[in-house]
Amino acid sequence: GFCFGLGLLAVLPADHPLFSLLRPAGAERVKDGGMGKARPTVLKRSTTKHLCPAVSADTVQELIEARRSIFPKDYTGALVDDSAVRKLLDAARWAPTHGKTEPWRFVCFAPSARQHLLDATLAHYSRKDPSFWTSAWGGEFPTFANFEDYFRKQSKAKWMMCSHLIAVGMRRQRPGEGKKTYPEHEELASVACAVQNMHILATSMRLGAYWSSWFDHFVESSEGVRFLGLDPSAGDRWIGVFVIGSAEAHKIDSYRATRKAVTETSEWREV
Fold it and tell me: Residues 130-145: pLDDT tens digits?
């Protein structure tokens, strides 16, 4: 099966090609292990009481400090259950959002659909003029053929080791009569917070997770934005791919991180 990020289905018409693109050739897997009718998974809007859970501040801070970007080179290739990924998408929507615009949009390429994202990416570069390759990535790939060889090797060794590839989008607030339009940087910040929500929850679930910038020319292009079902003319953006994978515990625990002292990045003022 496949899953969409919360809110995206409200944007796309029922006959949008992404529905057929991401629907697997077989029927969608259902919870009991049987086969059900292939259909989009609609995640409904819900609300929750704002009750503070019985979790200590120290525990929360430990979880935040334990978050790491776990890279695909350390994934086992084992698939993550769809239900776990849906929990990540569910957590994403509780990010802060000024004016309740909820600008985050996610397209989750499940295991059966990963190749569609890879194929679309490669196809974008196949249409580039030969002059493009003289400057792209500092001329690292003299021709498309060189890039294609690299891309296919990377796809096998890296991207196909991931279980789910979640394209991260920002749907720009649409202007409306009597509505305040919020700055773009606030919308982008909300999306980043949503990704952080997913990453924190993935950490607690002992999953490998990493926010990739993906392939910048495709991501920044109108073609790429439209590929996600978004509208580049309205200011919508594609801002990378959040990848999920399985990793052995000792690999996850081997990742280390350091940060500057809080006194180097924060200034405390008192009148």
Answer: 999 999 999 999 999 9
Q: How far apart are CA 56 and CA 59, in angstroms?
A: 5
CA angle 231, 235, 238 (to 5 degrees): 70
Chain CA centroid to CA 184, Å: 19
Q: How far apart (Å, rounded) are the C-alpha atoms in residues 180 and 241?
A: 30
Instruction: Tally the C-alpha atoms within 13 A of residue 112's C-alpha that lie toward its C-beta.
Output: 16
209 in Cβ contact with 251 (< 8 Å): no
pTM: 0.82
End-to-end CA distance of the chain: 58
Residue 101: is it exposed, middle or buried by C-beta count within 10 angstroms (0-12/13-18/19+)?
Answer: middle
Cβ atoms of 87 and 140 within 8 Å: the answer is no
Tokens 């305040």 belong to which residue?
180
Helix axes 57-66, 184-204, angle to 10 degrees: 100
Structure confidence by residue, pLDDT tens digits, 7-38: 443 334 444 444 343 343 333 333 333 334 44
Q: Three-state DSSP class for 12? A: coil
Contact 160, 76 (CB under 8 A): no
Which has the closest alpha carbon to 242: 118, 108, 114, 117?
A: 108
Instruction: Identify whether the C-beta of residue 125 lies closer than 8 Å to the C-beta of residue 144.
Output: yes
